[in-house]
Amino acid sequence: MDLLTLIVFLPTLGAVACLVTPRQHIRMVALAVSFVTFVLSLTLFGTFWAGSGDVAIFGEHYGTLHETVRADWIVGDRFAIEYFLGVDGLSFPLIILTTLVSFLACLASWNFDSWKVNRGPRAYFILFLLLETGMLGVFVALDFFLFYIFWELMLLPMYFLIGVWGGPRREYAAIKFFLFTLGGSVLMLVALVAMYFFSDHAITQAMVEQGVDVIESGYRDGVGVTHGTFDMIELATNTAIQGYFGAKSTLFLGLRFAPLMFAFLFIGFAIKLPIVPLHTWLPDAHVESPTPISMILAGVLLKMGGYGFLRICYPIFPSGGYTLAFYVAMIGVVSIVYGALCAMAQTDFKRLVAYSSVSHMGFVLLGIAVMTKSGMQGAMFQMIAHGISSPMCFFLVGVIYERAHHREINRFGGLWLTMPKYGTMATIGFFAALGLPGLCGFIGEVWVLLGTFAARDMFPWAIPMAIVAASSVILTAGYILWLIQRVYLGREREEYKGFLDASPREMFVLVPLAVLCIALGVLPMQTVFNFTNGTLDLMLAQVLSGAGVG
Amino acid sequence: MALLGQTDLWAGIDVGEHLFLFSPMIVLVCTMLAVVACPIILGRGPRSIATVVWLGLGITLFMTFRVAGAVADGGVSGLSTQPGGMLIADNLSVGFQFLLLAFLAGVMLMWWMGSSATERNAPEFFILLLGSALGMVLMVSTTNLLMIVMAIELASLPSYAIVGFEKRNRVAAEASLKYMIFGAVCAAIMLYGASLLYGLVGSLDMAVIASYTIDNLSLGPNRVLLAVGLLCFLVGIAFKVSAVPFHFWCPDAFEGARIEVTTWLSVVSKGAGLLLLARLVTVFCAGGGADANPALSITFLTPLAWTIGIIAAVTCTVGNFAAYKQRSVKRMLAYSSIAHAGYMMMATAVFIHPSISGSTAGITALLTYVVIYLLMNLGAFGVTAMVVWDTGSDKIEAFTGLMRRSPWLAVPMVACLMSLVGMPPFAGFIGKWWILVALGRLQNTATSSGMFSLSTLGWLLMIVAVVNTFISLYYYLRIVVQMMFRDDGQRTVRTPIVGLAMVNGCAVALFALLIFAQPLKRTAERFTRNMYTASVEQDGKHKTLASAIQRGTP
To answer: Which of A533, B281, B399, B403 gives a 20 to 30 Å CA spacing to B222?
Structure first.
């Protein structure tokens, strides 16, 4: 069994095991499975250890993969859907993030029995592990059809996890989550079919020009594809396909193919990211989810949107990205500012953290949209950083909610005095979200801003957008500092005096995240950039040449 | 007697050979006779009569297997030496017989669990059930105008009666009457259309009619009459498929009938209608002289594709929206079946283009979808049936808290509903996927360009289909919400073990068919290969007769 298949489907095996385990041991099985998955994913580090830009690791062009698995799945009549997995610099850090956050979230579910639900843990942990399979599958799948299957696969478990184990408005939140995500992915399905047939046309044309008999040649002759494909790397790097996709004369229902397909895919990924104005499912889903599910939602699910941009939208439709750059960047800036303003207005602790996610993911979108080296790198870093700081913040909220049974920010106060260990962790977590230099949030935001400034030759609007995005840091500082002041500082309150400090289990969740917050802030090269930049730079070079500007 | 004179019954053919090819149908008829005879010998016990039917179905299945081997390499037009005989035996008709038998077994199982204990009129019930089954088998085995009309009537008439089988139930009686009136009107329109076509062309063979149509529809003096005849004829098929605006019978009949009857009507009746439509479309593409005169056939086939495509798009949209406010699960599933008929009809629209009539993408997609649809509906109706038998209500509230009450009903129900939506990891997604791919194939084959080209049609239908997937999600989720998220303390549902095995089997099969999409596709391709299409003699006597009519001297 190859490594990636094992990593992806080990949680599914765990889910099957949960089906037959006695009730009191289920959480143990789930925790063990998610831990083993995490350890297995760490073995991927070896492949990427040597450092940034190493040709031996990242290749000379975009598309060098490691640990690849390829097998035919559905083939026939000039048609091939493959079981195709692999990792490169784009997916590698996200896989580690997924397995880590899943493991910690599983640990956060340890006190399942004290939740006020009348459902047993069996279904919960089965769905949890299936969700992990779906998430990992999205990051390792390189066949677009397979990617789509995994993308949808994770919807159903998430829907039930919110809807069955959630808060009072869980039904509404769960359905909203489901409808928004499916609404985005149906257009992706059209794009999926369209990309296959248009690539088929491109390949056929190229073969006719070379004088190859199209009918006679097999569906794969070892040299390259001889028909349309779902292979995301092939779609991005095959010159015949890229030429046809990008050509102005290629039309889909009378509209230019590349920008239209870019938009179809963009909507699907952007709902997940999320962007203003399609973000409204996110605060609802977060507020109603149980704490571990919030951690997964913020830590991993939102990253799928960003990963989709980096893996599919930009490499395959560079000219679409270039044409629509202004709108994409504009949406990013609006999300940054609007998310921050909304966060400032919240009185519900969890809702505030949820809106801060909208703001932070706006930076990801802006960094990708400007199509510069530091912009892309910053966006990737921001995804990882947010994937560490936001689960931490949600867990911090969950810890206090378990004790106080409410989340009203204004009713808290002086918690640092009551719970010193917890207060310290909370400060690290929220300062990381704020973007304090030395912590992880800072690097991503600065890189994105630098990247936006650097795009001024390409896009005249880059400077004003960078200025607006940079100024919004003040808003972020505003709501986070105000939050810390209201909740953790001030005089100790009578009603919270009896609260126990963070338990060892809670510290076990918080400390690794806090350490990572600091490590990423102090050693960004060694922790993230060395692993991602090699692929990102090659991808960007290819995108720029595809868009005709590099 | 000119009508029969042209078909030269029995002349110069191997009668034994041909009787063998149609033996599954003959065995079905014999089973009906056995059911009639059974009360005299064995008494009217419902289970003994059902056993006779099981036996008959077993023999039918055996004969179908043997016929499948015989026609694998090429279809046969039977009981006549003429090219367009009355009946056809080919891979497609055999494939449909397999589906029908499997589904009939599922429906029998439901009857056995739910109604056999209280059934007082078992012989009548089974005669009606088998009669409509025979009609559906015939529908997929013919391209003869007269035979089509007969087959549709044979499928419909027992259905009217079986819907109202509970004669003391007012709702059932009303449903039956509505169904019958609607069916009678549609049958009358179809017969009128058939008579116009026969009067104009002078032949009952669809291939001859197709050839005549393509030659005359845009130029000939009788083109209005011809168009009217064709459209009227299509009404009959649209009624069977429950395409909008001929769908009004569907929700009432589904709600009023017993649940096993509803299940029966929901899948194969529509499947038979769609496969008949697909067969006719093939004839219009391939047998209609399209290869001889591509330009002329494009001018005819493109509007035909658009007509079917638009009806399909409207059907699935109306079905999905109407399902929204239903409180009865049976009725909701009725509207859902209208929507699914729309999706399946899209596959018949694509398959029109002459340059792909050699390719079986559309009809393979259709057949695959019917297989998957059969499983999901058997599962969904099976769960509904068990809830209805136990609680006596088919309202959505009867499902409240099912996850706690009977998890082995709730989980397969979720699987079937999500499969109906078209969500991975269930096979409903693969069914939709092949239809989308078939629609996409119009891209590479369209010869005309512009606003009303076939490739435009393909992409538009694709967008309609995926948007409808999104629309349909909400009402399927309403049942899921009731089962999973709410609980009002109702008691556990008592379920027969066979029923649990059936619905869970359906759910597992739906999951497995996504993983094993490749074998499924291969199987569907095997049963759509070598479809029988009659070749038309351009200077045959049909043609001469047709020209004579044009000159006004019939």
So the answer is: B281
The SS3 assignment for B91 reads helix
- Whole-number pLDDT of residue B214: 76
Q: Is the peptide bond before B245 cis (omega within 30 degrees of 0)?
A: yes
What counts of helices (H) and strands (E) characterise chain A?
A: 27, 4
CA B242 – CA A265 distance, rounded (Å): 35
* Residues B255-286 as b or e (16 or more Cβ within 10 Å = b): bbbbbbbbbbbbbbbbbbbbbbbbbbbbbbbb
- Expressed in percent and rounded to 5, the helix, strand and coil fractions of chain B are 75, 0, 25
| pLDDT tens, position by position, A15-44 | 999 999 998 899 999 999 999 999 999 999
Q: B471 to chain A nearest CA, in Å?
A: 9
DSSP A297: I
Answer for the pair B24, B59: CB distance below 8 angstroms, yes or no: no
Residue B76 bridge partners (DSSP): B89
From A360, A269, A355, select the one nearest A306 (Cα to Cα).
A269
Mention every residue, 6+ apart, whose C-beta is less than 8 A from residue B495.
B386, B390, B406, B408, B409
Q: Percent of chain B beyond pLDDT 90? A: 53
Maximum pairwise Cα distance, chain A: 85
Top-confidence residue, A305 or B223? A305
What's the rounded Cα separation, in Å, for the pair A400 and A514? 17
Q: Please enumerate, as own/partner, the contacts of B296-303 that have beta carbons within 8 Å and a separation of 24 or more.
A: B296/B214, B296/B215, B296/B218, B297/B214, B297/B354, B298/B354, B298/B447, B298/B448, B299/B218, B300/B213, B300/B214, B300/B217, B300/B218, B301/B352, B301/B353, B301/B354, B302/B448, B302/B452, B302/B453, B302/B454
**Among the listed residues A412, A397, A422, the one whose alpha carbon sits nearest the alpha carbon of residue A500:** A422
Distance from C-alpha of B391 to C-alpha of B379, rounded to nearest angstrom: 18
A172 touches chain B (CB under 8 A): no
Q: Is the pLDDT of residue B4 over 80?
A: no
Nearest to A282 by CA among A380, A184, A381, A366: A184
What pLDDT was estimated at residue B2? Answer: 43
Q: Is B424 on the interface with A (CB under 8 A)?
A: yes
- Range from A53-62, A211-220, A426-435, B480-489 carrying the lowest mean pLDDT: A211-220
Considering only CB atoms, which chain A residues are within 8 Å of B459? 190, 194, 252-253
Terminal C-alpha separation, chain A: 42
Which of B354, B339, B378, B366 is closest to B140 using CA atoms?
A: B366
The first and second tokens of residue A521, run together, are 């802030």
Question: For B393-407, what is each residue's pLDDT tens digit?
Answer: 889 999 998 998 999
Cβ atoms of residues A384 and A89 within 8 Å? no
DSSP state of A526: I
Contact residues, B window 310-369, toward A, CB-based 8 Å cutoff: 359, 361
Chains A and B form CB pairs within 8 A to the count of 87
Indicate the angle between helix axes B249-256 and B329-350, nearest 10 degrees: 140
Find the Cα–Cα–Cα–Cα dihedral B447, B452, B455, B458, rounded to 10°. -140
pLDDT in tens, B264-306: 999 999 999 999 998 888 887 765 444 555 566 667 778 888 8
Instruction: Enter the tokens of residue B364.
Output: 């393979």
Domain residue spans of chain B: 16-550
Interface test with B, best of A79, A138, A144, A156 (most B CBs within 10 A): A156
ipTM: 0.93
Q: Cα(A280)–Cα(A303) distance, rounded to whole angstroms?
A: 17
Residue B449's CB is within 10 A of a number of other CB atoms, namely: 11
pTM for this structure?
0.93
CB A429 within 8 Å of CB A517: yes
Nearest Cβ partner of B444 from A189, A197, A253?
A197
Find all residues with CB under 8 Å of A210, minimum gap 6, and list them. Answer: none
Average pLDDT over residues B53-71: 92
